[in-house]
Design brief:
By secondary structure, the chain is of the alpha+beta class. The protein is built from 8 helices and 20 strands. It is 19% helix and 34% strand. The longest helix is centred in the middle third of the chain and has 11 residues.
Length: 366
Amino acid sequence: MTDQLKTVPLNDLHQKLGAKMVPFAGYMMPVRYSSDLEEHNCVRNGVGVFDVSHMGEFILKGPKALDLIQRVSANDASVLFDGKIQYSYLPNDQGGAVDDLLVYKIDDEEYFLVVNASNIEKDWNWIESHNTEGVDMINASDDMCLFAVQGPKAAEAIQKLTDVPLAEMDYYTFKKGTFAGLPDIIISATGYTGAGGFELYIPNHVALHAWHHIFEAGKEFDIKPIGLGARDTLRLEMGYCLYGNDIDDTTSPLEAGLGWVTKFTKNFINSEALLQQKQAGIQRKLVGFEMIDRGIPRGHYDLCDAEGNVIGHVTSGTQSPTLGKGIGLGYVPAAYSKPGSEIFVKVREKLLKAQVVKPPFVKPTV
C-alpha cells in the first residue's frame, strides 16, 4: 500500500525521531512520536510542531482572480485586505461541499489558497473547471512544506528567528518576512488547535534547515514534534470540522453550522439552492456533545433518543485529554440541537447519556 502513498519531504527525519507513520489522506504521516496525551498537553501548555506538509497550496493570479474565488467559494473574499486570511468552503452543485479551505489575500491580483490534502486534485479540477476568464493558476502543493508551530509559548519560541513582530499579529492574518535566514516566508496565525501559534510555508529545499532552527529556538521551552493523533484531539476540543468526517460532498454546509461563512450578498455556485434551504429552515444540525455517562464516542456510533430510536450518528468523537471525558460532534434533528438537550450514544449496544453543548469544548487561548 505504501507504494501508492506519497511522503512529505521530511519523512526520513520523522522516522529517525521515532514517529509511528500511518496512511492519511494519501500520505504516510506521523501519527505520534511519544503518546497522544503527552503531545496534546505539550501543545495546550507549551509549544509543539506539526509537519502538515500534506496540505495543498494553490496560487491564483491576475485581474480576475478575485472574481473566480467569489464564484467558487461561499464566503465574501471582497472584504479581504492584503495580509488577511478567510475561512471558507467550496460548495458543489448538489448541496454539499467540495472542500473547506483558507483564502489568503497577497494583493489585489494574487491569492493563496490552502486546501485539504485528500482533496488537492479534486479541488484543483473543480476550480479550474470554473476558470473561464484566464486566471493564472499554480499548484504549489508539491513544492512547499507547512510547519504549524502551536501552543502558548510558540511566539516566544520562534520570535528570535524573524523580525516579524509575532505577538502583534492578529488572528487570521499573515505576513511575508525573513525566517531563520530564509526570505519571503509566509508566516500566518490561523491554527487548528485553539492554543495559539503560527504556520510557516517553507520551500522544500530549505525545509530541513527551517525545522532544525525551529527546534533549536524552542529548546528552552521543551518544544516537541507532534503527530496527527494529538492534532485530532486538539481540533475536536475546539469543535473544528474535519473534512471527510463532519463535512463532505453530501452534507449541507448550512446543517454543518457554516452559515457564518455563507454570504448570500453575492452569487456563488449553488447559492440559490442554499438560500432556499436556509429560508425553509434547517432540519438537521451538526452539534457538539459531552458525555454524562462514562464512555468514549467514536465516529459512526449511533446517536439515539431516550427510547433508543436512532436520530443521528457521531461524525467525530474522542476522550478529551483536557476535560477528562468523552466529547463529540454529530448530526441530529433540529429538535435535539439546543444546548442542554439530552441524547444518547450507543456504545456496544448500551445507551450512554450525553448532553448537547455549544463548542468549543475547551476555551481557546487565542
